[in-house]
Amino acid sequence: MILMPIVRRALPAVFILLLLQMIAAIPVSAAGQPLRQKLDFPPTGTFGGICAFDVDYAIVVNTEYITTWFDSAGNPLRAQTQGRLVVTFTNASNPAHRMTLNISGPGLTTFNADGSQTIVFYGNGLAFLEDDMILSTGRLVVVAPDPLSPGQLVSASGNQRSLCELLG
After folding, report:
1. What is the β-pairing status of strands 152-162 and 98-102?
2. 89 and 163 in contact (C-beta within 8 Å)?
3. End-to-end CA distance of the chain
4. Please, are residues 111 and 75 in contact by the beta-carbon 8 Å criterion?
5. Tens digit of each residue's pLDDT (9 = 90 or more) over 100-128
């Protein structure tokens, strides 16, 4: 993923969705052939406007990659994110409150005909919603109108916790 300078309120998108910004710049592979690409996150950054405090992050381990399948016209159909992603999240107002989390997923994104995306997190994941960050172990389904908009939680199974509360 390449994070571009984004207005703080636009940043609370689904973490994996931010990765999908790359898709617009990905050269389309031969028809029917999936394209596999390493996901490069900025090593550090800040999420603002989600919790009552800013949340700093630092990438500890990143071996994530995304495999994207396209239709014959070059439009993305689905993308699978796999690999290992370990991130330290810190309450910027109280740096003693920090957590290092394995949020490796995996995840599957389906590109819907209306332009929205349905993202299914499997295993350990972190979803960025309008007013919270949801740490999930299990299956979490989120729909977002586009890669930079907050997702709406559709369903969840397993365990979910608010990262904002855990870091508070």
Report:
1. unpaired
2. yes
3. 28
4. yes
5. 999 999 999 999 999 999 999 999 999 98
The 3-state DSSP class for residue 84 equals: coil
CA 51 → CA 1, 54, 111, 156, 157, distances in Å? 23, 7, 28, 21, 23
Buried b (16+ CB within 10 A) or exposed e, 39-59: bebeeeeebbebbebebbbeb
The CB density around residue 11, as the number of other CB atoms within 10 Å, is: 19
The HSE-up count of residue 160 (CA atoms within 13 Å, CB side) is 15
What is residue 96's three-state secondary structure?
A: coil
Q: pTM of the prediction?
A: 0.80
Strands (E) located in 63-132: 65-70, 76-82, 85-91, 98-102, 105-111, 117-128
What is d(CA 126, CA 34) in angstroms, rounded to the nearest whole number? 25
The residues, any chain, with a CB within 8 Å of residue 5's CB and separated by 6 or more, are none
* Separation CA 115–CA 120 (nearest Å): 16
